[in-house]
Amino acid sequence: MNFESWWLIFLPLLFGLGWVAARIDFRQMLRESRDLPDSYFKGLNFLLNEQPDRAIDAFVEVAKLDPETTELHFALGSLFRRRGEMERAIRVHQSLLSRADLPAREREHALHEIAQDYLKAGMLDRAEMAYVELKNTRYQEPAARALVRIYESEHDWAKAIEAVRKLGRLTQESVPQLVHYHCEITQSFLDQRPPDIASARAALDEACAVIGADDKASAASRARVLMLEAQLARTAGDAALERRRLLVLLDEAPDYAGLVAADLRRNFEATQESDVLLECLASHYAAHPSLDLFDVLFGLTWGQQGQQAAWAFAQQALTEHPSLLGLERALATQLKCASAPLSQEAAPLGLIALPLMQKLIGRHTPRFDRYSCRACGFQARVHYWQCPGCHGWETYSAKRLEEQI
Question: What is the DSSP secondary-structure string of 69-123?
Fold first, then answer.
């Protein structure tokens, strides 16, 4: 390729064109900066000086002077929501939705924002309506998740089932709480007076179908279904079926045996087969110790083999798995059932009076006698399948705080 000297004429020409373009762009920037209200720069200055309250007031003034600034409106609405000023956040987003010229994409954004405002404000009916409108938009997945939370809060389990199935189709993810929704419906029928056994059975069949279709069903969901099957059998007067369901739970969800230990004892004692249960639970306790199993085993050993054997079991068990709660319960059983005091050799801690010992221990055990959520740490005296604090499912351990130390 030959170089022509006259091509050099283009170099200063190109340079000049670039200089002109830069000047035009710079003038445009200056013109736009002059058009911005002073409140905008005041707001930025307040933000830099960590004065968020005054910055918000300045940006509100900008929004009043220039209602077309949609991004600023969105930013203000989010700020208000994070600060808990829900009424102001709702007004900001309502002002956007009232604009007839708002593009469809921005309208969807505003609808999603105001739905979050309603949800955080506890206006569940309005939040539900807003999230339903987001169907088939780019916000349909977060809307589906929010609807699940709303229906759970309202205990509308039928709608929750529908919403969680839609969420599963959108995300292609398994939804472990689905089985619990059917269990909640089952429990509601069993809690009626009189219990609606037929409806409870139908709802529980749905829960069993969900577990049957899920190879990765958790031990917690299996345990809950088995516990409900046992409760349903007991309500229907079928003690044999109740026993079978509870024994299956020992095999399929061994960590949850403590939750049904008292039911097992009642069932076997009704047929004078406590010795059979004692042998069964003793072997289970060796592999899966828990406080509730200890409590039942101590009482069964006392009834079948006497108080000396019961305290021998307690000494071995508490040596291997030290527990103030276990000792307190053993002392309670001693004080309740003993017809004669223990000998000095068999009595715990020798000569210390048992009532005094129980009182001293009882001052320290209440803080350990609780179940705790693994996600948020919310503590409760009873076991929950859904945490009342963070609303997570299957986040409660089947063991109390002391057993987890």
Answer: -HHHHHHHHHHHHHTT-HHHHHHHHHHHHT-TT--HHHHHHHHHHHHHHHHHTT-
